[in-house]
Specification:
The protein has helices at residues 7-32, 40-49, 69-76; strands at 58-61, 82-85. By secondary structure, it is mainly alpha-helical. Strands 1-2 form a two-stranded parallel ribbon. Helix 3 (69-76) links the parallel strand 1 (58-61) and strand 2 (82-85).
Length: 107
Amino acid sequence: LELFTSKKELTFLREYLPKITFYARVYLAKMQNGEIPISPDFYLKKFQLSKPQLGYDIILFDEAQDASPVMLDIILNQQNTIKVLVGDPHQQIYSWRYAINAMSQVP
């Protein structure tokens, strides 16, 4: 909801959010059941929710300025792994896909 700021947007969202949520769940269930093709975002989210441990000693994450929150979560939750994030926040080109500057999210 924090993405919407105008009164018109918030009014629309309040009115239609239940329907949007319902149909999004129907759509995701159809992917889960194999009724429609699975999108890359869907299988990446399923992978994240499985809390995978990749078993690598070191992970080099290049172009980290264009990481999605899902990718960043997978990387940061690796146990006993050295994580190296490389990127240039001035070259972030995927913010339209909700990419975040992962380097600003890491202590």
